Structure formats: C-alpha cells, structure tokens
Amino acid sequence: LASVARTGRLLCVGESFPWGGATSEVIARVTSQGFHLLDAAPQRLNAKDTPIPYHPNLWSTHRPNAKNIVAKARQLLRE
Length: 79
Known about the structure:
By secondary structure, this protein is mainly alpha-helical. It has helices at residues 2-7, 22-34, 56-62, 66-78, and strands spanning 11-13, 43-45. The protein has a two-stranded parallel sheet with strand order 1-2. The longest helix is centred in the middle third of the chain and has 13 residues, at 22-34. The protein is elongated and about 45 Å long. The chain starts with a helix and ends with a helix.
C-alpha cells in the first residue's frame, strides 16, 4: 500500500492467466484496504487467455514482456 499511496497507481504483472491468479488477489486486497489511495483504476497484465503454446517464438509472445509492461505502465500514467 505504501507504493500505491506514493503513486496513486497500481499495475500488477504476472505470468499466470488473468483470472484466479496472484494479480487478481493483489488487486482485490489493495482495492479493499486502500481504495482511497488510488487515482486510477488498477491494471493487470497477464499471460494471454489462450492455450499455452509450445514453440519458443509463440511462447515468448504469450507472456508479458518488457515492451508490453512499459506500454501498459505509460497508459496507466496517462489516466
């Protein structure tokens, strides 16, 4: 909550699917205990909600990467 208090923002990044993972739980706890600290809606960036690919080229695009994280963070800062 200290980071959310400083920035007013929350971006959770995880390699799991978007539902039922650690990112969902973190957002749930922050909104229940520190909703008043948020200046924008919490965002999460997870693996795509598709079957996990086997080929390395496809696997690398299935999970969040530095480019996706930076883009999502910039989007959150504009809100």
